Amino acid sequence: MSVEFGFFLETVISGLMAGVMYALVALGFVLIFKASGIFNFAQGVMCLFAALTFVGVQEKFGLPAWLALPAAVGVMILLAWLIERLVLRHLVNQDPIILFMATIGLAYVLEGLGDLMWGSDVKLLDIGLPQGASDYMLDNFNLYVEKLEVVAAVIASILVAALAVFFQKTRVGRALRAVADDHQAALSVGISLNTIWVIVWSVAGIVALVAGIMWGSKSGVQFSLSLIALKALPVLILGGFTSIPGAIVGGLIIGVGEKVAEVYMGPFVGGAVENWFAYMLALAFLLVRPQGLFGEKIIERV
Amino acid sequence: MTFQANVSDAMSDVTSNAATGPAPAKEPEMMLAVEHVSLSFGGVKAITDISFDIHKGEIRAIIGPNGAGKTSMLNVINGFYHPQEGTIYWQGKVRRRMKPHEAAKSGIARTFQNVALFKGMSTLDNVMTGRGLRMKSNFFWQCIHKGPALREENEHRAKVEEIIDFLEIQHIRNKPVGKLPYGLQKRVELARALAMEPDLLLLDEPMAGMNLEEKEDMSRFIIETNQRYGTTIALIEHDMGVVMDLSDRVVVLDYGKKIGDGPPAEVQANQEVIDAYLGVSH
Amino acid sequence: MSVAEEAASARLETFPAVLLRNAKQWRDRPAIREKDLGIWQTWTWNDTLQEVRSLSIGLAELGVKKGDHVAILGVNRPRLYFSFAAAQALGAVPVPVYADSAAEELAYILEHANAHVVVAEDQEQVDKVLEISEQLPALKEIVYDDPRGLRDYDHTHLHSFERVQARGREALASDAGREALWLEGIAAEKGSDIGVMLYTSGTTGKPKGVMLSNDNVMISAVNACEAEKLTEKDEVLAYLPLAWVGDHLFSYCQSYVAGYCISCPESADTMQTDMREIGPSFFFAPPRMFEGLLTSVMIRMEDAGSLKRKMFDYFIKHAEKVGEDILNGKAVPFMDRLKYNLGELMVYGPLKNTFGFSKIRVGYTAGEAIGPEIFRFYRSLGINLKQLYGQTEASIFVTVQPDGEIYSDTVGKPAKDVEIKIADNGEVLFRSPGVFVAYYKNEDSTKDTKNEEGWVYSGDAGFFDDRGHLKIIDRAKDVGKLNDGSLFAPKYIENKLKFFPNIKEAVAFGNEKDKATVFVNIDLNAVGNWAERNNIAYASYQELAGHPQVYDMIRSHIEKVNEDLSKEPMMAASQIHRFLVLHKELDADDGELTRTQKVRRRFVAERYDDLISALYSDKTEQYTKTEVVFEDGRKGSIEATVRLSDAKTFAYAQSEAAE
Amino acid sequence: MFYRETGQFKTNYSDDRAIFPIAQDRYGIMILLAIAFFVIPFTVDDYWGNAIFLPLLIYALIAMGLNVLVGYCGQISLGTAAFMAVGSYASFKLMTSFPGLDFTIVVLMSGLITAVVGSLFGLPSLRIKGFYLAVATLAAQFFIIWLVNKVEWFYNYSATGQINAPERTALMFPVTGPNAPILYKYFFCLIIVVLAALVTKNIVRGRIGRQWMAIRDMDIAAELIGVRPLTTKLSAFAVSSFLIGMGGALYFGVWLGAAEPTEAFGIDQSFLILFMIIVGGLGTILGSFLGAAFLWLFPIAFKNFMVDSLGLSTAMSEHLQIILMGGLIIFFLIVEPHGLARLWQITKEKLRIWPFPH
User: Fold this and answer.
1) Whole-prediction pTM value?
2) Distance of CA C585 to CAs A122, C505, C581, Å?
């Protein structure tokens, strides 16, 4: 294996790992969009908020990590419930753009709230995930791969698998899938729309928590965490707003593409290509396939 | 008084069936013809090998059970769908594949099965939008809203007001259409289509969801449109009474295929048509 | 200006001559407007002259000549107003006919009037005329205004307005002398010629054609314009029937004389909005309309917040206290005046504004008595509303309330040039330059109504009070006697009842009976609203009318009236002993009302004969079945069991009112 | 209550479709303009001018631009700040490259350049709709900011990466640079904003505006009655960007005087403008002004209150402010999704039928 190729491979692997993160955030978007048609702009801030909460309860109340996790999950569920109570149910039947704007408002509230409750300084998040390079990879393939990233990828995969089971096998999961197509159908399963919203926002919150912990372990919990949400958006375009596989594949594509572009193109144009490359890629892709990777072709009717 | 006798004839002409009008002495002029048109969506056939024509000046009804492909047919006619097979003749010439707004420009207007008004605008603005194709003033004049732009705006307003008057919707002129009752929305939609001064007007279930009185009004408007402006009309309608009263000729579709074509009375007697409506065939 | 034109306009004895003057004097001032196609289309006086001239000559081309009768059939439309002058310019007599006349009535009038040409508004009117055309041997041509739906009609004798005018213009263009000829024709018309023929709706019998000379209406119009200082700057809404003498005077004659602009509403439905847009300065409306408006004010205010209602009530009360005095120019304490100004800002101004009354300088009401509360309400808001007493036979004006001398219970003092005397039986007689020439083809009636000295028997009973104001109590022939010999004036009682917003119509009986009784029609709007507020469920008018609580309410109104009556020496005997609430609304389509919405007392009495006899028995309910005509023209019948109820009466009490 | 409309009737269509058909509204706007032109300029000091009136006017202009796109044409954009940046950098390059150029021309040309860039980024709108488009506009946001940051030519190779506005005049009056009097700056912005509002209103009440709204309300039906999606959407992007570009030129040239791309044109700016039109009212010119005023004044008032009156720390107040801002947006959306302009509309209707409740 040549050095160049090895470097390329390292870049790709590192991109894949970042892609997993994007995919996780995108997953949260997709869940909510699929179930309620709401474009939840606050998903990124939810990651930040969840991570802040997770660190915060450890710092302030001295809880151990294994207790902080359920506590943070509890907070996210409570948050979902509050959001449904205070925001969503008052905005039923409004235009999508109105709901979208409401989630931007929500993002502001969560951001301020997180800072207010847990302080706005950068926090270290260490839950004992392995750090450093994987010796195995280094020794056998001469590749530098972060252990944390591998762990993150594994956890993310488990989460995705769990979600798949949840959606395919449980009654609630099936109702959630039904609601995406037809609100009436969901009602016939015997679950009220409000409950469904709470559930789906809770699930999205938990996904955000996982993503937040992963990302936070890598680079600390700070405001910039919420910006990964902006990275997740092109993933959505690529994968389609309603497709879970799309979110995953899209995330990986963006992650890899971004890293490769940064490494190979960045030096020629002054760097920081990462900031926009994902968008340009998504945009170019959209022009070819407006419905995204896995979206269905829309037959317009009048 | 001497003119009594003729009058009653004239009156019956207006109020009842236009089909009894004077028989055409010469070959009717063709407005539009579709020949062997087929349309499918990802393998699902919506229309299969359909041919029929629409004469200039007539009221042509397209009927058939739900899912027969009627609306798809209208969508083909005004360029919204592009058939995989077949030819469309427009005013005697083969029509190339065109975009909906080009079809509109060539003189085809339509209304929709589920009212498709511009909900955020007033009745007046909705109808004015229908004049868009005929308004020519350039961007500069639009910016200052004077000179040619203002003149044009006023001229078209006058035209639009005539249509508003014709369809008796003066009282809702400045109301946002979103809040109007359904029957009035349908009327505004017709007004918008008429504002285009089309050669061919496609009406997709103009009377769906209306009560008897509204239906009568709408029938009157359709007949008057046909007579006063000489507009050729193709309409889809479920109310057989209305179809029989209004139309000169009827084409019947079922499962995307044509199963009948001719004057209302003839079609009504067609066994295949009766079966289709009763669900016997297939 | 040509010699002929000058000659024609020098003597202003006819309206075409006035038009020539106006076209010169107020060339570019608006003469008439119509809300059409979304805006107020305007004709200047010059435009009007052009329109009238081409129409007039076009009519001449159709064969209209001096002395012919031109019927004008439709609602207020500029072209129909043009038709008046166009016909008059040819020496023909315009005969306006009520647009809502049924075919039968129409047939009678057109046949009786010998109409040669009908100018009809639209397809509906044309159809009506065509339907009866066989009965009209004199009718030669029909001209219509709105071509809608008439495209395929046989046009041998049917002409569009445009077509007639085009023919007029062609004639003008092809014959250089034609215009001079037309002007000469106008100049040749004299004041004493018949200018217009108006059919009285007539509460009894067939309508009569009142022939008014040019002088009749011209002098009346000139006098009225002077009295109210009407100028070309005034604004008037032309919305009352063309065939009614009031509209003819206010919207046609006075407009020509004073030069003011009249505006025709888009339709009857939009009358309120149109009124508000135009903001007339001179306005006329029957009491009915003022009543309706007041009711709607009260109903709409019901839903207002309590604070706003309190404010509203407070200022309305204040207006009641000082409003009329301020309007009449009397001294009012400074604080009260200040408070009234505040009220004007907060309540009166906005209220007048929503009605379109803000600019009213002179308002008339007539036709029947207006409720004193209603009358005072409008006056207290600062609207100069006056009562007018008039008749077609007088070119409307008999008495008018002069500014500053407004009493709600009188109809004012004789108008300019009008003499009035009271006959021994109480009947009011008048004589004026406006007094009609004769009834058309009805010498007997003419003789009965107008004596050799020119005095006209008004048919109304009344008297002058000590302020010199005329007070009308009833139709002279309706004033009857109870069996005990005391006076029974049904209209007087009915009007008192109708002043209650809940009572729409009342018919009193008692002539040659022992006691007085009444039929009551409830006002569906007012009572329906009341029912809603009191949680009274009802499915139909009939059910609401028969509801016991409604009876209780009506009874309380009647007892209030009885109390009032008991204080008046002449009327104390005719207190209402028993009453019923009718199960259906009295309706012009059933012949129970006239087209001007007056009760046809005798017809009602015959029709509900069974109910009347039940009122004079001691039954508590009575079954009845009535033939009715539905809106779509079908006939059917309504049946009901109507409840009968007693009302408390009061002993005659001397009071200050009776002194 | 104060609306006395009796006697206000229209005899032609021009009057009927006037911007202010009701006389009282005309008087009202005249009084407002009179205050803006003759009272404010002669009473305002530097603080009020720089902290309140200039940003108010400039944000109103930018909000109006975004409103054309989002409110009238229904195309959601999250890239407003990027287009402001285009306007700013265009004006900077024009000012430094052509020192003699009148600033009025600079502003107009900056608008035009932004219109071209905006149309370019509007092209995807033909294929993609709704949120897909919204996300696509983020591409503009990130790409453009990256571009002006990375390509030194844009900031004339300055060491700090900042751009600074040189002194320039409009019709001989100095309006940019640190020494330009606030009075001139204010007048300059006011005139541009008033004219822009008038022109925008003219466009939206004519054919083009109706076609925008048709696309917004029901794009398929619009196309079927002959509205060309390409030209219509691109014209909305162009007009919108033109206004935003002019706003950007004023923002940098007149108000800030200096700008650094990631701070002055960050995505938060895009959201701020979006909030302005949502709170103000989508699809109304008035709403752009009301929204700009509200979202600019409210935080200032809030901060003053928190820090000065309650003595909270600046950081604390900032957190609270951000929460409150978000909460307020949600509150507005729930209570009146059509914004302040609709509230005014409702109030006006109430006043027109006063004393009646309906």
Assistant:
1) 0.86
2) 82, 9, 10
